[in-house]
Each structure stands twice: as structure tokens, then as C-alpha cells.
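> call design_seq(struct)
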């Protein structure tokens, strides 16, 4: 069961509880599911019980117990636990990881994208300032990916270089005259230097990766090809997933979603592995178990499963930095997981290798899609 399918399952459980008269509340349009946080358990968690508690006039724990009874017997659900103030922690039957990979590879760049318009109409308005222009352009793309209809406007005619170098487009300039159902002023901390000498990709990353209240660093550090540069790590991780596919083809096998563990643990040299670990991967705890295929695969699956939630959150808060940071998280796990994908020495390609390759390709798909929403290219070779 994919995160999208699980979200629908949760909504069906809410609807059954409402229809049975156990809850008096409106069924929400969407139920967010994501890997459980600290203290959680299972494959996914949802806060839908906390969301419904106030309108239902009941404590979140009580709402969670009602929903658990409707979720526990749903197809594909192995168990439901309640943790914290009322989080529902859901354990899936086997195959959840495989279904996620299949879903990502099937949808491609549209993984995490809402298929139907939501009817939300948004007017993004910004001052004639380069960071505001790039931010509004990225926010518009993210909002559209989540089904919103978006119109952008600038207080004055944008500088020609913003379009020529940074790829910024605007629907209108001047103060909007027609009222919009939702008008949002995009006002990040301005860039104190001209970012255009960095070129489109590095300049957009320099402006979008920091939170809007932080000062952007417009330096050549965004151009260097080393692990201290987050943009390089994201693009390099994508390039590595493409290289893995090419190397696998040379060895005579292709990807096939399945069990990444197989019958053997794929070992790599611990010292070389540790030297290759980016800082964020160390923070994720991956350095403690070099060569642990399951541990690394689980971390990657969790990061990929959280991508649709990240997109929805970035759209809701008008915050492209949330998407950029999540891409860094995915990339850092990919750069660890890549060492487990191909056979070593005399090892023959197995079903596990094909499954690991499929997971790596799914990660590359998400990285390329996320960079595209930020207006940044994902080159296959670096």
C-alpha cells in the first residue's frame, strides 16, 4: 500500500465512523500520512484524530480509539497503535516498500503531485527584488503541483536578467486590480548581492535553500563540487542513480521492485564507507551500521514516502526551502545506499540487487522531480 492509498484508507475509516454516528464531524479532504516521528512505531503515522478532536468535541485519544477499530481490519493493514496525544501508528502488511517503489516509478515526476485541481485560487504578489521574484516563481510551481490555480504579479516590471538567467516569469506587473480569493505577499529577506553571476541553478538554490527569514549567501560555494555544497550533493546523488542503472545494464540486469535484503548482507569497507558519508547521513544514524542494507533501505524508503507530505507542507507555508532541505535529506541517504546496489567481485546479480536498483531509481526520480519544481536542472553527469 502506497502513502496515497493509505491516506484514502484513513479517510474511508473516518467516513465509516461518521456514517455510524460514532463521530460527529466533517470528513476532511485529505489525511496526511508520513513515517512516524520519535516515539512512534509501525510504517506510517497520521494525526487525523487530533485534527478531528475539536470539531467532534472529543479528546484526541478517544477519537483515535474509534478510528483504530475501523482501520485495523482494512485491507493491507497489519496493525494500528495509538501513541502520544492521539497519533495513529499504522503497520502495513508486507509489500509496502515495494508498492511505494512501484508507485514512484509509475508516476515519475508526478509522484507527490495532486491530479485534480483543488479549486484554491492564489495571487502571489512581490516587490521588484530578485529573491522575492525567484521565491514567488518557485512557490507558484509548488502550489500548482498541489492543485492550486496561481497568478503571479510584481510591483514593477521585473529586470530582464531575472527571466534570461534565472528563468523567472511573471503573469503581470503593477498592483493587482482584480480581487483574488487569496492574496499572498512574498517578502523574503532580500539578497544583498546580485546572484545572476552564479548562473541559473546555483543562483536559484542560493536564494531558495535558506528559509525566507534567513539571509541568503551569494557565494561561489554553491558552484563547488564537494560534499560541503548541498546542491552538489543533491545533483550528484541523482547522477549516481543514473550511473547505477547504466552500470547494472552493463552487468546484464535491470531493476525490479522487491525485497532489498535477499539472502545475504552486502558488505562494504567500513573505513571507505565512513569517509563517503555526508554529514546529514551521520546525523540520521547511518554511520553506525555500514553495509546494513535493511537499515539504509528503510531510511531511504522513509524519506521517499515523506516527499508528498513535504510538498503539501511547502505549498501550505509558501516555503520552497522545505522542499530543498528534504531533497538534501534524500540525497544524503542515496549517497550511502548506493554502495549496496551493485554486485561486488564474483557476486552474481540477484533479485535483491534488482530491488535495490529499483529503489535507487525511485530516489533519482524524486530528486529530479523536486529539483524541477525548484526550477533547477538535474544533469545525468557531473
Amino acid at each position: 500500500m502506497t502513502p496515497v492509498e493509505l491516506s484514502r484508507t484513513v479517510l474511508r475509516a473516518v467516513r465509516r465512523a461518521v456514517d455510524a454516528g460514532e463521530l460527529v464531524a466533517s470528513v476532511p479532504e485529505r489525511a496526511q500520512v508520513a513515517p512516524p516521528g520519535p516515539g512512534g512505531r509501525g510504517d506510517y503515522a497520521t494525526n487525523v484524530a487530533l485534527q478531528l478532536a475539536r470539531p467532534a468535541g472529543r479528546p484526541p485519544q478517544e477519537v483515535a480509539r474509534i478510528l483504530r477499530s475501523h482501520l485495523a481490519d482494512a485491507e493491507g493493514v497489519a496493525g494500528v497503535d495509538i501513541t502520544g496525544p492521539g497519533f495513529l501508528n499504522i503497520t502495513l502488511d508486507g509489500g509496502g516498500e515495494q508498492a511505494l517503489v512501484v508507485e514512484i516509478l509509475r508516476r515519475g515526476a508526478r509522484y507527490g503531485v495532486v491530479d485534480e485541481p483543488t479549486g484554491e485560487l492564489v495571487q502571489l504578489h512581490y516587490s521588484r527584488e530578485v529573491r522575492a521574484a525567484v521565491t514567488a516563481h518557485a512557490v507558484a510551481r509548488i502550489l500548482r503541483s498541489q492543485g492550486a490555480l496561481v497568478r503571479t504579479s510584481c510591483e514593477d516590471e521585473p529586470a530582464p536578467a531575472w527571466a534570461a538567467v534565472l528563468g523567472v516569469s511573471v503573469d503581470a506587473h503593477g498592483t493587482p486590480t482584480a480581487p483574488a480569493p487569496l492574496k499572498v505577499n512574498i517578502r523574503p529577506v532580500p539578497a544583498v548581492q546580485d546572484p545572476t553571476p552564479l548562473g541559473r541553478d546555483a543562483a536559484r538554490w542560493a536564494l531558495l535553500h535558506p528559509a525566507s527569514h534567513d539571509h541568503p549567501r551569494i557565494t561561489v560555494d554553491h558552484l563547488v563540487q564537494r560534499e560541503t555544497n548541498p546542491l552538489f550533493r543533491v545533483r550528484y546523488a541523482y547522477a549516481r542513480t543514473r550511473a547505477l542503472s547504466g552500470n547494472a545494464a552493463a552487468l546484464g540486469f535491470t531493476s525490479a521492485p522487491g525485497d532489498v535484503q535477499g539472502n545475504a548482507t552486502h558488505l562494504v569497507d567500513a573505513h571507505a564507507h565512513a569517509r563517503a558519508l555526508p554529514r546529514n547521513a551521520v546525523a540520521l544514524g547511518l554511520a553506525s551500521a555500514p553495509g546494513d542494507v535493511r537499515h539504509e533501505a528503510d531510511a531511504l524508503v522513509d524519506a521517499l514516502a515523506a516527499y508528498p507530505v513535504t510538498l503539501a507542507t511547502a505549498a501550505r507555508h509558501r516555503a520552497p526551502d522545505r522542499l530543498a532541505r528534504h531533497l538534501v535529506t534524500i540525497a544524503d541517504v542515496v549517497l550511502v545506499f548506493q554502495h549496496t546496489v551493485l554486485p561486488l567481485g564474483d557476486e552474481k546479480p540477484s533479485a535483491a540487487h534488482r530491488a535495490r536498483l529499483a529503489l535507487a531509481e525511485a530516489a533519482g526520480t524524486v530528486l529530479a522531480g523536486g529539483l524541477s519544481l525548484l526550477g533547477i536542472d538535474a544533469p545525468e553527469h557531473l
